[in-house]
Amino acid sequence: MNLQLPYCFCFFLLLQLPFSTNGQAYKNVSLGSSLTAASGDLPWTSPSGEFAFGFQQVGDAGYLLAIWFNKIPERTIVWSANRNNLAQRGSTVQLTADGQLVLNDRSGTRIRNTAYLGGSGAAYGAMLDTGNFVLSGQAGDTLWQSFDQPTDTLLPTQILKSGAQLIAPYLEKNYSDGRFKLILQDDGNLVMYTTAYPLTTSNFPYWSTGSSLGSGNRLIFNQSGYMYVVASNGTILNRVFSNPVPLQDFYHRATIDYDGVFRQYVYPKSASSGKRWALALTTSTNFVPPDICLAISYPLGSGACGFNSLCELGDDQRPSCRCPTGYSFYDQDDERKGCKKNFISQDCGHPSQEIDNFEIRDMLNTNFPHTDYGYFKSSIVDEEWCRQACLSDCYCDVATFQVGQCWKKRGPLSNGVTDPRILDKALLKVRKGNRTEELAQKKSAKKSDRSALIISGSVLLGSSIFLNVLYVFFTNRKKQKMIPQHHVMRDMNLQNFTYNELETATGGFDEELGRGAFGPVYKGVLGGEDKQIIAVKKLEKMAGEGETEFKTEVKVIGRTSHKNLVQLVGFCNQGQHRLLVYEYMSNGSLSNYIFGDSRPNWHRRMEIAFGVARGLLYLHEECSSQIIHCDIKPQNILLDESFNARISDFGLAKLLKTEQSKTITAIRGTKGYVAPEWFKNLPVTTKVDTYSFGILLLELVCCRKNFEIDAREEHQIVLADWACDCFKEGKLNLLVEEDEEAMEDMKRVERFVMVAIWCIQEDPSLRPAMKKVVQMLEGVQVSVPPDPSSFFSTI
Prior knowledge:
Blueprint: E1 3-4, H1 7-16, E2 28-30, E3 34-36, E4 44-45, E5 51-58, E6 62-69, E7 77-80, E8 92-95, E9 100-104, E10 110-116, E11 122-127, E12 133-137, E13 142-145, E14 153-154, E15 159-161, E16 165-171, E17 174-184, E18 190-195, E19 202-208, E20 218-221, E21 226-230, E22 235-242, E23 250-256, E24 262-268, E25 278-279, E26 287-288, H2 292-295, E27 310-313, E28 319-322, E29 327-329, E30 339-341, H3 351-354, E31 358-364, E32 366-367, E33 372-377, H4 383-391, E34 398-401, E35 405-409, E36 417-418, E37 425-431, H5 436-460, H6 464-481, E38 488-489, E39 494-496, H7 499-505, E40 512-515, E41 520-525, E42 533-538, H8 547-558, E43 568-574, E44 577-583, H9 590-594, H10 602-622, E45 637-639, E46 645-647, H11 687-702, H12 719-728, H13 740-743, H14 746-759, H15 770-778
Parallel strand pairs: 39-43
Antiparallel strand pairs: 1-22, 2-11, 3-8, 4-5, 5-6, 6-7, 8-9, 9-10, 11-12, 12-13, 14-23, 15-20, 16-17, 17-18, 18-19, 20-21, 21-22, 23-24, 24-25, 24-26, 27-28, 29-30, 31-37, 32-36, 33-35, 34-35, 34-37, 38-39, 40-41, 41-42, 42-44, 43-44, 45-46
Helix pairs in contact: 10-11, 10-15, 11-14, 12-14
């Protein structure tokens, strides 16, 4: 729509611009003023008291330096300075004499400068009745304003300038950067994107105004509740919201919510307690996109809800996430993390024997787009054919059928949606007897049985039969309670297994999953209702007797807890037997995943890189005892059922006999991943893991091993050498030329290769700590690394 604004309306708009603040009534905040979190300090309020600036507590997590609606019971936050780094009790914000708005923690360490003016000239700050906090100069001019740095909300009179963006919160009460963003692009197109979470970089667009009419555009939210994109000459390009609600009667805000929908809300100023924010009460559009479940559907990412979950639009037009039958939420507090299977996947080693153990559950009007690996279209393809095709294929998690067409899909399932407009029927494969509702029924039945036994006892009291029943019942109960104290390790939830228990669980150590430096790893199943699958590692190559050292290392490992580490379930320390029991990782090792016959997708490989980096950061800096892994390589990175990276074998380096080293005596690690200081008898620090991660990162980027004797060219045999040469020559495309997804993301390829080169520097002092590595991977500027090639000639 192209409409020339009338002259009088243009003049009205100019009066509303947030940088024209001379007409506003200030309640000045003098230079040197400060506020302290949780001290009882009154916030800095606007003249009418409708808005306030100060600290808002976020549960038990900390404090936001924020602006909020101050006259309604629901203290709705509209702007924050530290959404990704909450301040703690005792932190302060100060408007300094030189015009900086500085946030410090309670020790005085600067968290960030919210506004930096540079130079002198600042006179005071002020919280305005528009919801805008400004820093003004001596002449009353605006030097800085919160309206220019929005978080997730726009207010009336606020303008979103070309290139600016709103980023949705992670959850309703978790204000950190979330999974969606809205940006006014330089070409004038207002677009909503999914983000490459945990980064805020744009992933895929799912809604836009569709205008691309050059630069100089702005998104205006005026006092009458209208929102539109306007060109520099005053021409309206696109309307977003057209809801005239009187500002004198209602508070307004437009927010991109955590579910990815941009909504316009109103709140009556005369409301009594119990009212809530509501969508603008008109017949016009007041939220976009109209159906988030159908709007988001791309090959990368999980969709509107998490992997393995289904999105369904409710009667209130808000998306609801749910798990299919046989699946449950990973995190009940964050349903958008997706769902996990409650059953053991079909065994591809014996697919024919497994068919009878599975069944198909029908889901009407349901699809999981972009997870297809098989498509069949024929006159013989009916629903039963499609059903049997999925049942007999161990790779198939679900098939969808629609009039003579059948699509096979494997997990993790993405973009799941249920909607009456979808004509597909989803045929979900689940293991018989593992339905969550059946488990609940069994538990309920057991309780009923026990109650029935007691009731029956009142009738049969005096009977010798009942006395025998009571004896057996209470004896069994007593046995259940009389678990030896040593069976659970004190101060941590670790099971102390006997060797016989693990021998039974593994079927006599029958199924070997792999063999590492410490010994073999076997698959097993624990008894009980849950039938938890485990991986049992036999430690056959321990230094010395290892009794004390083993106990110490088990305690260290047992105290770790991170989503990118393999969780220790328990241990066995009986006689000469030393075994560790871990949770089972259904997708095996990273080595098998990236060096197999097919190339995994680019996005998933990058997520794995992030996961490994965060896991190492935790081991180095965040757990109770610093742990140096000493053997980071693809074989020691395992993948769970959603392909999340999990570091294994951490904390075990001290237990390994020196002669079991795969390089030379006294060196821990694997050739090709070993840092050069091992060879020079230099002190070993966390930087040895940084080096190994650098090699691993290159392997993830290029999807090949660091050393390939069969490489096409001689100079490509050592990946690290070749990557450094390609970087120096500006030919990084050669590393990924057969990977279309990576070729379309060359900026990230360059970033990751530069980070890897920093990590493999010969001098450990030049390598970044893992905290810095994580920051560089997430988007902090990466400087040009020096050439590390001097090391490679020494191998």
